TrEMBL record:
It comes from Propithecus coquereli (Coquerel's sifaka). It comes from the Eukaryota. It is found in: Cell projection, Cilium. GO terms for biological process: cilium assembly; protein localization to cilium. Its main location: other. It holds the Pfam family IFT20. InterPro entries: FT20. This is Intraflagellar transport 20. GO terms for cellular component: centrosome; ciliary basal body; ciliary base; cytoplasm; intraciliary transport particle; neuron projection; non-motile cilium. Keywords: Cell projection, Coiled coil.
Length: 74
């Protein structure tokens, strides 16, 4: 009964019986979103490394092509 009254007031107890302002369902959704965001950031970091390697490779190929042009012209 006390939990119902507190729940109506927007207060909830967690699994450790600590008083919380957020509904446990909202808290769980927040934790899941935080984990998804961390995974997303990690994937973006991996993507940036891959793209950086690709850019370096294309630059090297462009320099090699330019060197070959110079050899043919000269």
């Amino acid at each position: 009964m006390a939990k119902d009254i507190l729940g109506e007031a927007g207060l909830h107890f967690d699994e450790l019986n600590k008083l919380r302002v957020l509904d446990p369902e909202v808290t769980q959704q927040t934790i899941e979103l935080k984990e998804e965001c961390k995974d997303f950031v990690d994937k973006i970091g991996q993507f940036q490394k891959i793209v950086g390697g690709l850019i370096e490779l294309v630059d090297q190929l462009a320099k090699a092509a330019e060197n070959e042009k110079m050899k043919v012209s000269g």
